[in-house]
Specification:
The protein has 378 residues and is an all-alpha fold. It is built from 16 helices and no strands. 83% of the residues lie in helices and 0% in strands. The mean pLDDT is 89.
């Protein structure tokens, strides 16, 4: 995710600056670099999956299944990273429709494959993980096929695949902080999961259901945040400050409206939604509790993601990384540690998740308003 963010920013800036030669170098460098890194992550995921499951204090009864699921999912990193990079290239040059179409298609394909592997072939969690990975490989193939068959300036050719050191450094300078931030966020979520797992298998399953609902609710916001990064990068390349400011306001409104439209039904019909995934009364109780505790605060995630997207678009990826490091790791873990020793209740542990959003939103807003980032366009 980090390298695709960095590539999106650099490619969009070259596109906005009308520099086709550097644009092509950035695209080919990004794709080849992504493929090499993905192979490394595949190996790390395969070896590290059992240790991650143990670190999360997963209930012994589901540890073997969790290990199988995570190992299959993590060894499919190549497909996810290539799709993200290909999508980043298309978004950077103004084509956000086809990545969306491919995502919708492969999401539906994932559902079909889930039913086939899990229901028909009785493959349990291994089937669910395999369905996800196969769907991701289809999406990666589609996005690369579009880039290969294109006749536009962003066309890719395998003979041109080369890592250009200068461009790669630019991508890393932006992408490394973004990737580090994503890793820290995931790592912090593992800590929250560990505290939730303390309350037993039903709590763990309920949190898993909540997390799926949460990911669905935040999908419009995440998509808009990616779009505003590209939009900002293009206008930064063209040195159009007024459009950057106007774009961030529009993006924030769109993200909040989209999130609210999805969050309200989840809050109103939480028990019914949880029962779609699991009918166990304890799981329904915990899933409903987590949804109704946390989904109220999803709007704060819109603030931090949009502001972070704008800052990355102008090339400032370090500030969002530092702010999110503090909010999602230090602040969130301090809260969890203190509250768990005062009143260890599941809803209070779950609240640590959106609390990090709120702190992050506050600090990013202050930085955006006070850092003077506009001076680089003077």
């Amino acid at each position: 995710m980090g390298i695709s963010t960095g590539a999106s920013v650099i490619i969009s800036q070259y596109f906005g600056a009308h520099d086709p030669d550097m644009l092509k170098k950035a695209i080919h460098t990004s794709l080849l670099g992504t493929f090499i890194l993905s192979l490394i992550f595949d190996a790390i995921g395969y070896v590290g999956a059992p240790y991650m499951v143990r670190f999360m204090r997963t209930a012994p009864s589901i540890t073997p299944l969790a290990t199988v699921y995570l190992r299959i999912l993590l060894t499919g990193s190549t497909s996810t990273m290539l799709y993200n990079m290909g999508s980043a290239v298309l978004r950077a040059v103004g084509d956000s429709k086809r990545p969306l179409y491919f995502l919708i298609f492969t999401s539906l394909l994932n559902v079909v494959l889930d039913l086939y592997f899990v229901v028909s072939l009785k493959m349990s969690v291994a089937g669910a993980a395999l369905a996800t990975v196969m769907s991701q490989y289809v999406s990666a193939f589609l996005i690369l096929f579009v880039l290969y068959r294109s006749h536009d300036v962003y066309q890719i050719r395998f003979r041109n695949m080369k890592i250009h050191a200068f461009v790669f450094k630019q991508i890393i300078d932006v992408g490394m902080p973004a990737g580090f931030q994503q890793a820290l966020t995931s790592f912090s979520n593992v800590f929250v999961q560990a505290y939730i797992n303390f309350f037993g298998a039903a709590s763990t399953t309920g949190w898993g259901v909540y997390f799926r609902i949460d990911a669905f609710i935040l999908m419009p916001m995440m998509t808009i945040a990616l779009a505003v990064t590209t939009f900002t990068g293009q206008n930064a390349g063209a040195r159009n400050l007024s459009r950057i400011k106007e774009g961030h306001k529009v993006a924030l409104k769109m993200a909040e409206i989209g999130t609210l439209i999805l969050a309200l039904p989840a809050l109103c019909f939480a028990p019914e939604i949880v029962r779609i995934f699991n009918t166990d009364p304890d799981v329904v109780y915990y899933g409903t509790l987590f949804i109704r505790t946390n989904c109220w605060f999803a709007l704060f995630a819109c603030l931090n993601q949009v502001y972070a997207g704008v800052l990355r678009g102008i090339g400032d990826a370090r500030a969002p990384m530092v702010i999110m490091l503090f909010s999602f790791v230090f602040f969130r873990q301090i809260y969890l540690f203190i509250v768990s020793h005062i009143q260890n209740e599941p809803h209070l542990m779950a609240f640590g998740y959106p609390l990090g959003w709120m702190m992050c939103s506050f600090l990013l807003y202050l930085y955006y308003q006070k850092s003077g980032w506009e001076k680089r366009f003077a």
